[in-house]
Amino acid sequence: MSNSFPLVSVDYGAEDAVMCGAALSESVSGPHGVRAQEEADDMEMDVEDAIDDMQEEDVEEEKAPSPPPVPTVTYKAPEPMGEHYFAESFDKGTLQGWVLSQAKKEGIDEDIAKYDGKWEVEEMKDTKLPGDKGLVLKSKAKHHAVSALLLRPFTFDTKPLIVQYEVNFQTGIDCGGAYVKLLSQTPDLDLEEFVDKTPYTIMFGPDKCGEDYKLHFIFRHKNPKTGEFEEKHAKKPDADLRTYYTDKKTHLFTLVLNPDNSFEILIDQTVVNSGSLLNDMTPPINPPAEIEDPDDHKPEDWDERPKIQDPDSVKPEDWDEDAPAKIPDEDAVKPDGWLDDEPEYIGDPDALKPDDWDEDMDGAWEAPQIPNPVCETAPGCGPWERPVIDNPNYKGKWKPPMIDNPNYQGVWKPRKIPNPDFFEDLHPFRMTPFSAVGLELWSMSADIFFDNFFVTSDRNVAERWAADGWGLKKAAEGAAESPASTSAAEYKKTDAPQPDVKEEAEEEEAEEEDAKEEESGLIDKHVTHLLQLLLNPS
Questions:
Q1: How far apart are CA 341 and CA 4, in angstroms?
Q2: Cβ–Cβ under 8 Å, residues 234 and 218
Q3: What angle do CA 202, 208, 211 make, to 5 degrees?
Q4: Could you give the CA distance from residue 248 to residue 268 in angstroms, rounded to a whole number?
Q5: Model confidence over 18-75: pLDDT tens digits?
Q6: pTM
Q7: What segments bear the compositional bias annotation Low complexity (predicted)?
Q8: Which of 521, 515, 469, 338 is CA-nearest to residue 73?
Q9: Domain architecture of the chain: domains with CATH
Q10: Which segments of 155-235 are extended strands (E)?
């Protein structure tokens, strides 16, 4: 009769597994002993080989890990790879193609009217990407204006508009803007005369003063009836924008306008605001079809009172308007031990008249008052008075009850008349063409860094430009912040979005753990099979 035992899964140490394999090899006997012996010998060798491999891996794991190399990111200037209207990376190191305004701002003091704020093309102060230059606003409390022409004017027709650029508030921002203006195509556009009143089609970008963090999207809409322009402001984003203005990192600002009148505003390729030009602008694009008649006036006898006092109500004869609201409690009893003849406060017996007290000037000196110590253990001192309670017969001044007004006519409103200024523009996307980009700014903070301006009608082209420019900055900043957790040195510019290096490392680590568990399971199966051969060789 063969021996039969339940098989169990056991975690074997290296030495235990070797001993178990040797013992099994010596103990196999019976009619099938030779075959079992051969199988046991082969499996014993497999087990020992696997154990040797595991021991070598354990030794390697016990070795102190060497520190990871510090990642480096090599800068390469982005190049536009598709249809575009404007592309500027400033990597030539000059303001070539840009025009500094020579104008003065109207309506302010002569001392600050000039657009004499300084601009420089240079690297960021604490650059993580040597060789990467940008346009830097250098002056505090100055008017700055600089602009450049597009390769060709942008016309709003059947293609979208994508505008994007980068901003880094290197020293923070107290009060000032970093927005861009898309200057309208007009016959008299002179970039040397660029001022705050120069016509623009769109104004877009960050602005901050105090604790008011703004992200402007404003466009000038032309009234089809009068030809006059009116600024339309996008609704305020729901997102908290504070971090983008305070973290001193480079952020990518993107505006997308579509021919179907939809818009998106993105920071670092994440949507922070979106909507429709028809529904989400203030004031609205289209005026109301009807307005209140300015010549209509409320009639003098118009009754807007929903309730009135009952004219038939009479005050009851027993209504006492003179009854007090409070009366003494007749059921109250003076507590035992009340000291009627003791005052609550007495003159301080230890007080002394000051030496410089002049009774002619200061009057008769009196000791300061202190609580009477005799009253500390008594329920009270001084003349006892009954406490007051609410008067159950108090009714107050009588007023007639309120009833529904039988003459109520509702709240009066002027009648509606057709709006003489009404128009309906169902295609506000068709804005005024623009032919230049410009920065016209006042700031109380210096060293605002601008880079990688781009205007296109192809979103894929814009995303490629962003990956080659802002994506490289992001990789460099990430490498500098956490060199051990990201291999930014391996950052490779491609058309596709870059992978998350940290996620890849975590996936590789999980795969290694799975392989170890699988190998350990194979050893368990080998040892269990040897036990089975020993205990049940048939």
A1: 106
A2: yes
A3: 145
A4: 14
A5: 443 444 344 444 444 444 455 445 545 554 555 455 555 554 555 556 655 656 778 8
A6: 0.63
A7: 478-489
A8: 469
A9: 84-290+427-478 (2.60.120.200)
A10: 161-169, 175-177, 180-184, 200-209, 212-222, 229-234
